[in-house]
Design brief:
The chain is built from four helices and five strands; from the N terminus they run αββαβββαα. With about 160 residues, the chain is of the alpha+beta class. The protein has a single domain, classed as Dynein light chain 2a, cytoplasmic (Beta-Lactamase). Strands 2-1-5-4-3 form a five-stranded antiparallel β-sheet, with helices on both faces.
Length: about 160
């Protein structure tokens, strides 16, 4: 079972910023950050035409299957994958052993540029995830859900 991360507003904003910056600097079509369970954490770019939920789930399954291949080959894991299509290329990387970074790009970018920008983004995301884990373990800050009261829930359903 994969441990769930508790997401705090400050770190989610930082993850969003990293995602937006990677999208812009790599000239990608879209960037997704998903957890290893296949849940989308954030996204940037041209995602209106994408089934983000399915893409996230299938990508997490792909990473899990590739992890099985790595085990068979006595590897810890394969940190990155690249799929080349006719119109769209997909770069997948595991960041901080906790999240999956997906970059969709086309002829407007290159694999070299994407890899270069992903390296920087992965470093930044790893730092944010480390802070997030420390906060979760210490319980020092409430999650965004802690701000919701029973009265808020009642009001939501009374409207």
């Amino acid at each position: 079972m994969i441990q769930q991360l508790v997401m705090y507003e400050e770190e989610l904003e930082q993850i969003n910023n990293v995602c937006e910056t990677l999208h812009r600097e790599s000239n990608a079509r879209a960037v997704l950050v998903i957890d290893k369970n296949g849940q989308t954490i954030t996204q940037a770019g041209d995602v209106e035409q994408l089934d983000v939920t399915s893409l996230s789930s299938l990508t997490a399954g792909n990473v899990a299957a590739t992890g099985g291949i790595a085990q068979l080959l006595s590897e810890k894991e394969f940190a990155g994958q690249f799929h080349e299509g006719e119109k769209t290329n997909v770069h997948i990387s595991i960041v901080g052993a906790r999240v999956i970074l997906v970059v969709l790009f086309d002829e407007r970018s290159s694999l070299g540029l994407v890899r270069l920008r992903v390296r920087k983004a992965a470093s930044e995301l790893t730092h944010v995830l480390e802070v997030l884990v420390k906060k979760s373990e210490s319980g020092s800050q409430p999650s965004v859900f802690a701000e919701i009261t029973d009265d808020d829930i009642d009001n939501l359903f009374n409207d």
